[in-house]
Amino acid sequence: MSSPATCNSFCQNPGTLRCTRCKGANLKRFYCSAACQSWDWKFHKQYCSKKAYTFELTLLGSSNPDIKRVFDIPAWFTFRQLHYTIQYAMGLWNCTHLHEFSFQRLSNSHRNLLTPRHDILKIMPADHLKDEFDMPPMPGMPPRRHVFKEREESLLLSDIFDPAGRLRCIAAPDEEFLPLIYLYDFGVCINLYRRRLSMLMSSM
C-alpha cells in the first residue's frame, strides 16, 4: 500500500484533499485542510488544471546501476526552467557552466560520450546562440545538414511536446521523438569523459 501524500502547503501533514480542478491534470496537489489549500493558491493558480510532462533522465555512461531521475514539469515551462530543474534534480549543481539541449539522430542504439552527433534541433541560451556559427565542411566532405536553433529562454516545452506544438514536426519527424540530449560542461577537466556530462531524456 502506498504511503499518503504530503500536504503541498509544506506543513508536512498527510494530504487527503485534492484540488478539484486538477483531477485530470498530471500535476496533482494534495492538502490536509481548506486553510492549507487557500495558502497554496498563490503558487498553485499558475498551473492549476494545466498539463505537465514526465521526464526520465539517464546519465550517459552510468551502469550497474544506471543513474536516473524522473520528475514532472509543467508544459508551460521554458527549456531554461527545464535546465534549472535538471540542475536541482541531480544534486544542486551550480548552474554556472555551458550547457545546451539538442534533439539528435543517433548513429546506433548504444549512445555514449563519443558517439558522433547529428543535431537536428539545438536549444541554448541566447548569449551562446549569438556566438554559435556553422563551420564549413572539410574539403571532400558532403555539405553539413541544416540544424535548427532556438533560444531556451523563450522556447516552451509545449512548443515541442504538444501535438500542436510549432516545432513538434522537427523533434518528432516520424511521429516519434528523437533523443533529447542535455549537455553540461563542468569546466574543470580537459578529459572528455570527465569534463562533459550528457543525459539522455525521454518524455514519458
From TrEMBL:
Keyword Aminoacyl-tRNA synthetase: no
Keyword set includes Signal: no
Domain Plasmid pRiA4b Orf3-like: 52-130
A Pfam match: PRiA4_ORF3
Key words, A-Z: Metal-binding, Zinc, Zinc-finger
InterPro entries: MM3350-like_sf, Plasmid_pRiA4b_Orf3-like, Znf_MYND
Residues annotated as domain MYND-type: 9-48
A GO MF term: zinc ion binding
Name of the protein in question: Uncharacterized protein
